[in-house]
Structure formats: structure tokens, C-alpha cells
Fold this sequence. Notes:
The chain is of the alpha+beta class and 181 residues long. The chain has two domains: 3-77, no CATH class; 96-176, no CATH class. The chain has nine helices and four strands; from the N terminus they run ααββββααααααα. It has helices at 3-22, 32-35, 80-86, 103-110, 112-115, 119-131, 136-145, 147-155, 170-176; strands at residues 38-39, 44-52, 59-69, 76-77. The strands form two sheets. A two-stranded antiparallel ribbon has the order 1-4. Strands 2-3 form a two-stranded antiparallel sheet. The longest helix is centred in the N-terminal third of the chain and has 20 residues, at 3-22. The chain starts with a helix and ends in a 5-residue tail after the last helix. The relative contact order is 0.12.
Amino acid sequence: MAFSTKLSLVLFLSSLFIHASLGELICEELPKDVCAFSIASSGKRCLLETAKNEEDGSVEYQCRTSEVVVERMADYIETDQCVKACGVDRNSVGISSDSLLEPQFTSKLCSPACYQKCPNIVDLYFNLAAGEGVFLPYLCEKQRTNPHRAMLVLLSSGGAAPGPVSSSSESLTAALAPSPL
Length: 181
């Protein structure tokens, strides 16, 4: 059995053990290597944060419950396959839309292996893109047809730079559209 398959099995079994022994998935009780991209029983996203140890000044990683609620998922630890397919990192501290500016990341996020099979990660980045004024399905379409244009779409919207005024209802549709979860 390959190492990644064994690790996936161990993570899956440990998530079952955590859920069975605690009755619910609580972010603060998750190990740091499965914290990011997990969702607590409450439906809130788990977030890896750093904390300074008062005694020796060292930095420690802690899993915390964010205030971000996922509407259609709970009790979920993201699979290693989705982490790899989507190009995300479980050791990421916090979460930011900055990665959407990286063409390699956007390419992986918009790939069928991620976009069609990893609804948790897609929902997260859908909401981050929306916060920047970008409709993720539109960005992914541009990524597939013209990757350079995709970056212009992102840079010309949201807080990155002022974008052109559109006479179409596309902006309203982007703001009101639900995530593709």
C-alpha cells in the first residue's frame, strides 16, 4: 500500500475515532495536520493559527474554530486527495484570497479533479473570490480558455484594482449566486 493511501486511511480512521469518542468534531481538539479545511460539528470552519508560548517565546500551532459557517456541511475532515488536487496546504495559517492571484493555484482549483470532486475547498474559495468581487465559475471558465485573461479578471475586480464598469447584470448575478457546493 502506498504511503499516501496509508496516511489517508489513518486520517480517516482517526477522524472516525475523534468523532466517535467525542460525539462531535471540535476544531480545538483536532491535530494540526488535519485542522485546515476541516469543518466542526457546529458547521464552522476550522482554522490553523499560531500562538506564542509565553514561557519560552516559541511559536506553536493551534486549531481554532472560525466564525465562518458552511451551510451544507459539518463533521468533515478534508481528504488528502482533495488537498493535493486543489493545490492547498494543510499547514497554511489563516486563509486568504491572495492565492487566487497565483496562476498555478487557480489552475489546480479550477481543474476537474478539484472543482468537480472537492466541494468543501471549492465552497471556501468561492466565498473568498466573492469577497473580492469575483464569481469563481467565471474565473475558472476564463482560466480554462485563457489563463492570462483569468488573472486580469481577478486583478480588475475587488480590492486589487478598480475594474471597468459593466452595464450587464453579471455583477449582480455574481453577488447573488450561491456557491457550487
